[in-house]
User: What shape does this take?
Amino acid sequence: MSFKVQFHDNDSFFMVEEGEPILEAALRQGHNLPYGCRNGACGSCKAKIIAGEYIYPLGNPDGISDLEKKQKFALLCQANAESDLIIKARSINTTADIELRQLPCRVNTCEKLSHDVIKLLLELPKTERLQFLAGQYIDIILRDGKRRSFSLANPPHEDQLLELHIRHYDGGLFSEYAFNELKEKTVLRIEGPLGQFTLYKSERPIIMIAGGTGFAPIKSLVEYALKNNDKRNINIYWGVRKEQDLYLNKLVKDWSDRYTHINYIPVLSEIESINGWSGKTGFVHEAVLQDYKDLSEYDVYACGPPPMIKAISESFPDRGLVMEQFFSDSFEFAIN
Ligand code: FES
Assistant: This one.
């Protein structure tokens, strides 16, 4: 059996299954409601129940007072619907709506994705979750207070573990540490979520451009769009030096095989590596320019090194790209 949960101030609603926490159902269906711990402790998911019945199957949570209960507030992460509901809840529409937090985390998995990229899965304490929007990044705070920024590669609806893609750079302080010393269970400190690079609503088709590990936030954006049944055409250009650098090539190919609205165009820039390669070559932004004579009706999302972002912002407007339709995340690389 399922119940309808209606927002009191607009037409939108979502369905919640019997026995499913209301917050879980909302997030699953693309409604960005606020949350923190997701276990009844922090109170961030508090919402007013205007009409309808609910229960707390795990008992009364600590994050809500008796007075708040009397005032008809409920913690959506712990409450299950017992009937159709009308709720008054704050929604997270922009990055500014999310609280910036510092949290400890533990390395859950450290897995090599290619010769020079590892996937790091970070686990937060059981009582904490990090709310973020697809495409945002976090800082890892090193012992000396220095920071390294990494985009979150997982989409927000899969927030049990935070996924980072880390490329190895010779002499890079954190990347050397990550490749050579970081082990499962190592404790790190993070701050986030950060950044404005996230998916914006529009009716236009999308071009997504990733340079190297700039694929990480693109993965988050695409998985978020798929989860939300976003039917805009998404054309993914992934630029790397050699074929072996396409460290999640199969995943992106699977998206394009499975979904007719997703296209995948990998682009190799190192000429000597193209033997046997029938795909595109050269700089990734040039590959886009070869394919599109008029960009005025597209939204462009790009994440990669500064020269790639600069090349796009210098050349795409000549093809009609409106700068308000260009969203970018440029990652600087710091050795020390
Ligand atoms: S998210 Fe913390 S109490 Fe619900």
